[in-house]
Write a structure and sequence with these properties.
- With about 250 residues, the chain is α+β, with helices and mostly antiparallel strands.
- The chain folds into 2 domains: about 110 residues, Rossmann fold (3-Layer(aba) Sandwich); about 110 residues, Tumour Suppressor Smad4 (Sandwich).
- It has 5 helices and 17 strands.
- Strands 1, 2, 3, 4, 5, 6, 8, 9, 14 and 17 form a 10-stranded mixed beta sheet that branches.
- Strand 3, helix 3 and strand 4 form a beta-alpha-beta unit.
- The two termini are about 25 Å apart.
Length: about 250
């Protein structure tokens, strides 16, 4: 049984035609199910938990990157499979999973190629793609060492997926995350990055060198604060992926 979760921003009438096309394609492919529309009065966690009690086995999130980040933190601890339908082209998570936007994503859903993938976890919050720190004022407890950026302005990216923007080779099926520390130096005309350092890990701790907490931005959605423990949750999420995904 499928449960389709429509994010609240899709209540805008400009999305009406797209949603009709998606619904028609879902019916044509024989994967129709219950539709739940989020609003101020309807909580995503309650809708999903109620659906699971009613026998839902596949939760499909329709929305953007922020939608997916929210639903992942709900379904990660449930015995369900997650599907995604992006409503735009600007979705790095979907691209890494091989999921095209809009009605084309319905074809991926119908194919039901299911993978168990790793998630990152910062304290009690899961992330699927990456988390980022734009601050050199941190210290990382890495195995038996303490590691800090060599420049005051640095970017630290905690990766579950590799991406075109960094040198990480991380895969969401290898049971390992990667911390990429990239120093940034300011030139006369613009900032320039220096070759980064990659630290593969299953568990690290991140703290602040100063008195102020440092922000960690996860999947473009939630801001966490140091001190933080970052771990990998191996094969935590069952998810429907496409053949053009970035991993095996």
């Amino acid at each position: 049984m499928y449960l389709y979760i429509y994010d609240s921003f899709l209540n805008d009438k400009k999305y009406a035609d797209l949603l009709i096309k998606i619904e028609k394609r879902i019916i044509a492919l024989g994967i129709k199910g219950k539709i739940a529309r989020l609003s101020i009065l309807k909580n995503m966690k309650e809708l999903i938990n109620d659906g699971v009690k009613e026998g839902v086995e596949t939760v499909v999130a329709i929305g953007n990157s922020q939608t997916f980040a929210k639903v992942i933190n709900i379904v990660a601890d449930l015995d369900v499979t997650l599907g995604l339908i992006p409503v735009d082209n600007n979705n790095p998570i979907a691209k890494s999973l091989g999921i095209p936007p809009k009605t084309l994503a319905c074809e991926v859903l119908a194919s039901r190629i299911i993978k168990k993938i790793d998630l990152g976890k910062i304290n009690n919050y899961y992330f699927i793609g990456s988390a980022e720190i734009e601050n050199g004022d941190v210290v990382i407890d890495y195995k038996d060492y303490k590691v800090s950026p060599v420049t005051a302005k640095s970017r630290i990216t905690l990766n579950n997926f590799a991406s075109a923007e960094n040198i990480s080779m991380s895969s969401p099926v290898d049971g390992v995350l990667e911390a990429v520390i990239t120093p940034v130096k300011s030139g006369l005309l613009r900032k320039k990055t220096i070759d980064g350092t990659i630290l593969p890990f299953t568990k690290i701790k991140i703290g602040s060198e100063g008195e102020e907490q440092v922000s960690i931005l996860t999947d473009e959605q939630v801001i966490m604060k140091t001190p933080a423990e970052v771990t990998v949750a191996p094969q935590k999420l069952k998810i429907i992926v496409g053949s053009e995904r970035s991993f095996e």
